[in-house]
Amino acid sequence: MGSKPEGQSIENVIGVVCWQREAPKGSPFRLICGLQFRFVNTSEKETYAAYVANAKKKSGL
Fold first, then answer.
1. How far apart are CA 5 and CA 3, in angstroms?
2. What is the CA radius of gyration of the chain?
3. Among 42, 53, 54, 57, which residue is least crowded by beta carbons within 10 Å?
4. Per-residue pLDDT tens for 3-17?
């Protein structure tokens, strides 16, 4: 799942943790968090959006 539709992985993504809390009871994770991504330009943002859409489609969400 870790690749863009073109098949190349995305590297060096910058993100800032905006919030963090304990995961709900029964979750396989201990903590969950919200991230805000920082992009150099619109092209980088669109590339990452395509990556997320592809990962979402592959995971069945």
1. 7
2. 14
3. 42
4. 555 556 777 889 999
Cβ neighbours around 51 below 10 Å, total: 20
User: What residues contact residue 15 under an 8 Å CB cut-off, 6+ apart?
Assistant: 35, 36, 37, 38
One-letter amino acid identity for 23? Answer: A
Q: Which two tokens stand for residue 39?
A: 């992009």
Could you give the CA distance from residue 32 to residue 23 in angstroms, rounded to a whole number?
5
pLDDT at 31: 95
Tell me if 38 sits within 8 A of 17, measured CB to CB.
no
**5 within 8 A of 58, measured Cβ to Cβ:** no
**For residue 47, what are its two tokens?**
């590339």
